[in-house]
Structure formats: C-alpha cells, structure tokens
C-alpha cells in the first residue's frame, strides 16, 4: 500500500527532470520517472531517488505519441492508483539552429509535437484523472493535485535561430493559463516554471557562448542555473506553498527577465 504522494515527471532520466525527481524524493514522493530511450539513465535516477528518501518506477514513453501517453498514465495508475503532481518537463532543442528565414517544417513539427502537443494532451489526460480523484475525496495524501510545466525564457525571448523552440515554449505559457482557468473549480492549481540557462546536456554544446555571456553580466545572478534550482521551485509547489496562486509563472532564471538600464 503506497501512502506517498505520487509525482509523474516526464523526461526525468537526466538534466532538469532528474533534478526535479531528486527534490521530490527528498519530500518523500513516489516518482514516476518517464524516459524516452536511455533506460540506464532512468534506472540511475531511480537509484538516486531511493537514496534521497523517495521511491518510484521508471516508464519508457515518448510524450509525442498518443499511445505512449496513454500507457504512461495507465502504468502510473497501475503502480500507485493516483497522480498527485504532474511535471511536464520533457523537451528537445532543435537538432540544428537554423535561421528563421531558412528553418524547415520537419524541425518545426518535431518541436511542436514533443514540446507542446505532447504536454498539452498529457495534461488533458492526467487532469481528467485528477478531477475524478478530487471528486471521490481522495486528496488526503497530498491535498489537491497540482500540475507544473517547465517552459523556458524562450516563451518570451525571440531567438531567431530557433523559432520552432520559441513558438512551442510560448504555447506552453498559454497552455498553463488555459488549464489553470479550467481546473480551478476542482482545486487543481497549475503553474509554469521558466528556467533560464541551466547546465544540462541540452546546453553543453553552447557552453562557451554562455560562459562568456555570464562573465559579461547578461543576467544579474552571474552563474549557470543548476537542475536543483528548478527542482527546488517544483518542490515548493509540491509542498503546497502557493495555495492561492494558479496560472502563475515562476521565473528561475538568475534574473534574466529583468530589464535593466
Ligand atoms: P535534457 O536534454 O538534458 O533532458 C531532456 C529530457 O527529456 C531527456 O531525459 C530526454 O530523454 C527527455 N525527452 C526528450 N524527448 C522526449 C520525448 N519525446 N518523450 C519523453 N522524454 C523525452 O534537457 P534539459 O535541459 O534537462 O531540459 C528539460 C526541459 O527544460 C526541457 O523542456 C527544456 O526545453 C527545458 N529548458 C531547459 C533549459 C536549459 O538551459 N537547459 C532552459 C529552459 C528550459
């Protein structure tokens, strides 16, 4: 019998998703570690989750696939019978950073499918289940269920060499507002976390560029963000520290969003 709150974190094998899984583990959660292909990384994450005081399972599923999303939710419910927190984290950068005037439809479709359509319909599916949970009075382990989506400063920052990524992330910002508005009557709060530049495999290829920008003071807190910075923000939401906030954006970006003069 599981008496832990249950969190489903997409793309949790490595990077920011792993950082989130570990902070939730410190709160004692059972974490469903979704991964796309790298089973070793997911199993390593599960081991770390257990060492940090949590428990969990790994589930391979491509969030851009309808069948995989269904199976992801089914396997979560099969293991634990409930979902208290959904964290939409899985995402990809464009394989090549092409100029806005040249970039093709293939990359656009890939980015929209994985970064926007996947989380949109996963959220829809999970939200329906959460509503049933609330309506049956099954909220004792955690309080009302919650949903968090990891977007990006790219939701509002125009990078003309990855328009597809920016458009997908801007879509996630509206997705958060939509589900927040729709789910409030059920007590289900919905949040968007906007990371700045975080040290993961995704940014490893542009490390020198960002090292230089940081040294030049491109954002006020002069360091790279770490996956744990995002994990700790998710943990604050998981603890229920924002009960009267929904549709809220939490910038975890070293102050990147400030306009300074
Ligand atoms: P990452 O590449 O290290 O990790 C992404 C994870 O998502 C990987 O585990 C990958 O396997 C998984 N994934 C990719 N496609 C998937 C799919 N179709 N189905 C399921 N899982 C899939 O990158 P990261 O930096 O940890 O990024 C995590 C999230 O944070 C992404 O949504 C990214 O856009 C966002 N983000 C990252 C940064 C940054 O600077 N690193 C900044 C802002 C936002």
Task: Write up what this structure looks like.
With 261 residues, this protein is α/β, with parallel strands linked by helices. It has a single domain, classed as NAD(P)-binding Rossmann-like Domain (Rossmann fold, 3-Layer(aba) Sandwich). Helix content is 45%, strand content 14%. The protein is built from eight helices and seven strands. A seven-stranded parallel β-sheet has the order 3-2-1-4-5-6-7, sandwiched between helices. Helix 1 (15-26) links the parallel strand 1 (6-9) and strand 2. Helix 4 (105-135) runs parallel beside helix 5 (163-183). The longest helix has 31 residues, at 105-135. Nicotinamide-adenine-dinucleotide is lined by residues 10-11, 13-17, 34-36, 62-64, 89-92, 114, 150, 152, 195, 197-198, 200-203.
Q: Features of this protein?
A:
alpha/beta, Rossmann fold, 7-stranded parallel sheet, 7 strands, globular, binds nicotinamide-adenine-dinucleotide
Q: Structural class, judged by helices and strands?
A: alpha/beta
CATH class group: Alpha Beta
The Rg value, from CA coordinates, equals 18 Å
CATH architecture: 3-Layer(aba) Sandwich
Which ligands occur here?
A: nicotinamide-adenine-dinucleotide
The domain count comes to 1
> Sheet with the most strands?
7 strands, parallel
What is the CATH third-level topology name?
Rossmann fold
Q: Which sequence of SSEs, written as H and E, runs from N to C?
A: EHEHEHEHEHEHHHE
Distance between the termini: 57 Å
How many extended strands? 7
**Poorly predicted segments:** none
Q: Tell me the helix content.
A: 40-55%
Strand content: 5-15%
Kindly report the name of the CATH homologous superfamily.
Answer: NAD(P)-binding Rossmann-like Domain
Task: Give the helix tally.
Answer: 8
Shape: globular
- The largest beta-sheet arranges its strands as 3-2-1-4-5-6-7
The average pLDDT value, as a whole number, equals: 97
């Amino acid at each position: 019998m599981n008496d832990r709150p249950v969190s489903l974190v997409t793309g949790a094998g490595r990077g920011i998703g792993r950082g989130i899984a570990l902070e939730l583990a410190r709160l004692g959660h059972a974490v469903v570690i979704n991964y796309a292909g790298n089973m070793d990384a997911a199993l390593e994450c599960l081991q770390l989750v257990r060492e940090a005081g949590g428990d969990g399972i790994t589930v391979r599923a491509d969030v851009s696939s309808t069948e995989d999303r269904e199976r992801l939710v089914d396997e979560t419910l099969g293991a634990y019978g409930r979902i208290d927190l959904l964290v939409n984290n899985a995402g990809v950068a464009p394989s090549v950073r092409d100029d806005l005037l040249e970039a093709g439809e293939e990359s656009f479709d890939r980015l929209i499918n994985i970064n926007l359509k996947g989380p949109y319909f996963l959220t829809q599916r999970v939200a329906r289940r959460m509503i049933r949970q609330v309506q049956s009075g099954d909220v004792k382990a955690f309080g009302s269920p919650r949903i968090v989506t990891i977007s990006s400063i790219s939701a509002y920052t125009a990078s003309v060499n990855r328009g597809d990524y920016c458009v997908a992330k801007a879509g996630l910002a509206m997705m958060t507002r939509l589900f927040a508005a729709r789910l409030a009557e059920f007590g289900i709060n919905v949040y968007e976390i906007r990371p700045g530049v975080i040290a993961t495999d995704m940014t490893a290829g542009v490390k020198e560029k960002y090292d230089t920008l940081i040294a030049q003071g491109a954002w006020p807190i002069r360091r790279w963000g770490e996956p744990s910075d995002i994990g700790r923000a998710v943990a604050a939401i998981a603890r229920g520290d924002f009960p009267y906030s929904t549709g809220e954006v939490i910038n975890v970006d070293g102050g990147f969003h400030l306009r300074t003069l």
